[in-house]
Amino acid sequence: MQLHDDRLVILTGGAGFIGSCILKKLNDCNINNVVVVDEMGESPKWKNLVGKKLLEYLHKDQLFEWLNQPGKHTEIEAIIHMGACSSTVEKNVDFLMENNYRYTVKLAEYALNHDIRFVYASSAATYGDGRYGFEDNEDQLEELQPLNAYGFSKHLFDLWAKDQGVLNEITGLKFFNVFGPNEHHKERMASVIYNLLPQVRTENIIRLFKSNDPANFGDGEQCRDFIYVKDAADVVMQILTDDIYGIYNLGSGVANTWNSVANGMFSAIGKAPNIEYRSMPEDLHGKYQNYTRAEMSKLEKKLSKLKFTPLHEAIGDYINNHLIPQKVY
User: Fold this and answer.
1) Cβ atoms within 10 Å of 74's Cβ, excluding its own
2) Which tens digit of pLDDT belongs to each residue from 26-76?
3) Residue 35 to residue 253: CA distance in whole angstroms
4) 130 CB-side CA count, 13 A
5) Which residues does the annotation mark as catalytic?
6) How far apart are CA 154 and CA 136, in angstroms?
7) Is 298 within 8 Å of 138 (Cβ atoms)?
8) pTM passes above 0.85
9) What is the rounded CA–CA span in Å between residue 269 and residue 154?
10) Between the CA of residue 136 and those of 58, 133, 175, 247, 306, what are the distances in Å?
């Protein structure tokens, strides 16, 4: 589809990590009629909006009253739904069901009823421990077993979309380990790169989790599919404009170890590697993914321009062009 500068794009989570980077990409394409929906409170997320163009900001609890104004749907071209509680250790399941699942159902129904393009964030957390693989096969959705309530809330909407028979009308993206600028507000849930850089610079050490499965993974050899947020936002823009429907993985397609991340950080600041291993927190036991790698062939068949920044290059850009100078994207 062609985005028009005289119609509206609704961007939920638009002040957040991935959402604000998508806003930057929209602005780069001269799409400035963006209604950002979020819940900022006293959070520093507002800093992610500085220097960006938007038409309006709405608190997430105001959105449906605003949408239900007479004729409002005729002004809207697309809804990009990135807003959610993304904490993998959130224990309030009722909150996650209301905030992540039911809110998404309500927004999807609005988009479907009014023929509005709908792209939403699912998550790699829906795959659980990976025993059923990481293939974005919609026929196998029912087999997946998330390890935490966050992953379950995302999985439930994927199942709803399949049960309603609307996966040929909307697009879900299973984000893997996204990192990069604009995640400063996420605190513990921000990437290891964000959280450990002060320690690396002052103490010249990185502390990683010991393995909870030493038979299969050494300390620091647990693997993740890391994707740079700038690349992820590029893909969202391609998805939006290429009319691609269904559920797709969004990762780099490469499994990198935590040791590789640590080495990339030391390299970025010109220091020799010094890694120490510590015990995993109790609240992560039984909920920790030791290996993730997005199977990307399904999306690769749809997008000819799909490419991702190599991990060490992305880490260097993040640290030297954003974290150290304290610049948002």
Assistant:
1) 10
2) 999 999 999 999 999 999 999 999 999 999 999 999 999 999 999 999 999
3) 32
4) 16
5) 150, 186
6) 14
7) no
8) yes
9) 37
10) 33, 9, 11, 7, 17
Task: Tell me, rounded to whole angstroms, the distance of Cα 72 from its chain centroid.
Answer: 28
Neighbours of 296 (CB within 10 A): 23
294, 134 in Cβ contact below 8 A?
yes
Cα(290)–Cα(36) distance, integer angstroms: 35
d(CA 261, CA 259): 5
Burial of 153 from C-beta contacts in 10 A (0-12 / 13-18 / 19+):
buried
Query: What is the identity of the amino acid at 179?
Result: F
Look up residue 82 and give its amino acid.
M
CA gap 130, 145 in Å, rounded: 9
Taking alpha carbons only, the member of 39, 22, 31 closest to residue 55 is 31
DSSP string, 69-122: STTGGGGEEEEEE--S---TT---HHHHIIIIIIHHHHHHHHHHHTT-EEEEEE
Backbone φ and ψ for 122, nearest 5 degrees, come out as -95, -155
Burial of 162 (0-12, 13-18, 19+ CB in 10 A): middle
Whose structure tokens read 């819940």?
A: 39
Cα(158)–Cα(231) distance, integer angstroms: 23
How many CA atoms lie less than 13 Å away from 192 in the CB half-sphere?
Answer: 20
Instruction: Express each pLDDT in 101-137 by its tens digit.
Output: 999 999 999 999 999 999 999 999 999 888 889 999 9
d(CA 308, CA 291): 19
Residue with tokens 């995993």: 280
Alpha carbon 101 to its chain centroid, in Å, reads 16
pLDDT band of 5, cuts 50, 70, 90: confident
